[in-house]
Specification:
Elements: H1 4-7, H2 30-40, H3 78-86, H4 93-106, H5 111-128, H6 132-145, H7 149-161, H8 165-172, H9 184-191, H10 195-207, H11 211-224
Helix pairs in contact: 2-6, 4-5, 5-6, 6-7, 7-8, 9-10, 9-11, 10-11
Length: 231
């Protein structure tokens, strides 16, 4: 069981705005990235206190997986509610964060559900709100509960966006092929300016039987490097 103090954001400590640099726009050492994540990650965003905790009374906060209902029911099933109601509506992203922080407290004694909440919270912060320090903070906590290559790759992308190519390379260098649905490893190599490594992985991916996605990623890598004819 993780102590409740670790799960509840530090509202009393004062609000901090998280930096939101474009990928590659800043350069930080690994120590600086770690310090940023540790200082900003557990704090409340500036809008948190003014956001109401609201959700349908029919919503099952116990969040069983798989959902108990055969049909899609976003008014009852938590994962489907987050997917269809929260993720697809930017005006409700803050509301979703508030709800997930509420679930952190409700499920603090259930490691499986706690990790599920942390993964979802990291997604909202990092991929929707582009709050990279807080996204990294919660994904790190999820990884501490259970390892996951996909989640580590997501963290590598955040490390690069936060300014440390070194931290990103350390993670993705472990992967000899791209196992992701959308060529995320190829894309990250490309984003980091490692065009040749991106293309080499894309070639291997095509040979493994995934030509559509990997050729698109290879073309995009060439475009990003200014190699328009190759693209």
């Amino acid at each position: 069981t993780l102590p409740a103090a670790v799960l509840v954001i530090s509202l009393a400590a004062g609000e901090k705005k998280a930096p939101q640099p474009a990928a590659g726009a800043v350069t930080r050492t690994p120590a600086e990235v770690d310090a940023l994540i540790k200082s900003v990650g557990p704090t409340a965003p500036e809008w948190f206190a003014g956001t109401q905790l609201t959700y349908p009374p029919t919503l099952d906060l116990s969040w069983p997986e798989p959902p108990p209902t055969k049909d899609w029911d976003q008014s009852r099933n938590m994962g489907q509610y987050i997917w269809s109601v929260i993720n697809e509506n930017p005006s409700r992203w803050h509301e979703g964060v508030k709800l997930l922080h509420h679930l952190l407290v409700l499920h603090q004694d259930d490691r499986v559900k706690l990790r599920r909440v942390m993964v979802a919270l990291g997604h909202l912060y990092a991929e929707l709100l582009e709050d990279y320090p807080r996204g990294a903070f919660w994904w790190r906590k999820a990884l501490a509960l259970q390892g996951d290559d996909g989640l580590e790759l997501s963290l590598a992308d955040l490390y690069f966006k936060l300014g440390s190519k070194e931290m990103a390379v350390k993670i993705i260098s472990r992967f000899e092929s791209d196992f992701t649905r959308h060529g995320n490893i190829i894309k990250l190599w490309s984003d980091m300016g490692e065009t040749d490594r991106a293309l080499k992985m894309a070639e291997a991916c095509v040979k493994d039987g995934y030509p559509a996605v990997c050729n698109l990623c290879a073309g995009d890598a060439c475009r990003l490097a200014g190699r328009y004819a190759d693209a």
